[in-house]
């Protein structure tokens, strides 16, 4: 009994969109194969565990959200451990291993995990296993899989060390752990025939499966030698595969009648108060021949208590595309059941640890409501979902390919044909037509449909009772893995919603005569605690925002203009705006920026156009980072001598990194320092909240 207790470890996860939870569940599933028991909890469930008294090893899986913040589920935990009155030996008894999830596209990579890791160390906790930092930019599995593989030996050593410290014999624990089957042996399928087989009573005889395998190889030999979503080539096609354990089913769905009402959208949101507001204006800011279509929408918040500052963000509650929902119902054979109410409950006797009713699924609603408002049907399927889909696939060749895509050996194929291609469930069901998943499987594996976040592009001081925002209509072009083009879930829906409102005058912000609208959308606040105007109006600042990255700066300038009108005796600092787009005549979003320049709100306006040709002897700058370099002395003066602020908003990969590189070069040149020293200065500016970014990938 004592040995059984010592094989327990505490497993905590902190998730924003479900990734950390899915990885924690994978660890829990593998633990049993190693003779271990994972006591798994969301880190927010602080009534179910106590780190102050925890004697067993602790494993933490934690993601990062926003601009380097811990996920919402970890906020209370982080606040608790950051209590400055805690002594430096508060967690001296604690042995832990931490896996952080992040995206290197963002400046504060894995900062959620790093914050917890650093603080636990400060409070005396010790690593029993090295911290892992997984990068969603290149594929989480590149770090997650080997980190989990190494976890079991580290846990074994931690248990042995724990026994030695307690002065007890470790022989029993050692033999028990050694006897535990290795997960690789359990999951490593030893032959191609086994890879094709279902792991249940429906498995046919090995003779039939062997013949099917031969048939598959004959078909494959006539195909193109290039791999695709549905076709593999050696070595993957000839490999024995290590595939994830089959996730246990834990949801059952019962269809009821067609009578009743669906829940209000506000019941789906736990992040704060929702407001149903009217869309009062829609303006297309780009010309029809622009590469991207940018829209500005104006919302009426006059009759609400919704409040915001320039620089804040807010979230729009959006539905999945109704045509895609209908298509999914058709493929599932449930077209006739769309308006039926369904009851979702936890399956009795499920083997899933801590199985609970998904919080984002209403107790009672129609099937169509769940698929429209609750589940992210566009989500890129995780490997655990692919593993579950294997069991729903009747064609042997399709089954094998799905196994490859979720296997260790097929990791690069998964990245290329699913992750990087933005493949969703519908794409998979078209590509593998013999795959017929059950509704409960979708509810188990599809994540919550997330509200979409947008930067505010207005000032409540300048336009009382109004909230404006700007967005590009996201386009996903057709590709071999996705036969049809699609628009973004939220931007496509908004564009369709406001189509009757779009005004013919497409290049002005203050368009007159916009039609009234009865269309309403539901929103809730998501304040940005850092991306705000300097508290002292005399402090100078620089704004860099190409494309729709200019959005929050319109609010900045409107606010500053109103303050100047109301406080003529105040001292106002110098303001710079650097804007860029492809073509001056197609996508110069806010040409009335010159009004801010003329009335003195804006001191310097610098623009560039990356795709316009020039006949000038000296070619004009193409990109915002080129513009910044042209004004190196002025930028350095604002940042170093006048202690000003520097704001960047827009695309991370193709712009924000280039801007920060330019600033480093400027600091290095103007300070006559090496690049490393300049990078340290920039890091200090970030730390002081004087170099601020609102970026996306």
Automatic annotation (TrEMBL):
Domain Flavodoxin-like: 9-152
Entry keywords, A to Z: Amino-acid biosynthesis, Cytoplasm, FAD, Flavoprotein, FMN, Methionine biosynthesis, NADP, Oxidoreductase, Phosphoprotein, S-adenosyl-L-methionine
Residue intervals of the FAD-binding FR-type domain: 272-534
Subcellular location(s) per record: Cytoplasm
UniProt protein name: Methionine synthase reductase
Any GO molecular function: [methionine synthase] reductase (NADPH) activity
Top EC category: oxidoreductase
Major location category of this protein: cytoplasm
Cofactor(s) the record lists: FMN; FAD
Pfam families in alphabetical order: FAD_binding_1, Flavodoxin_1, NAD_binding_1
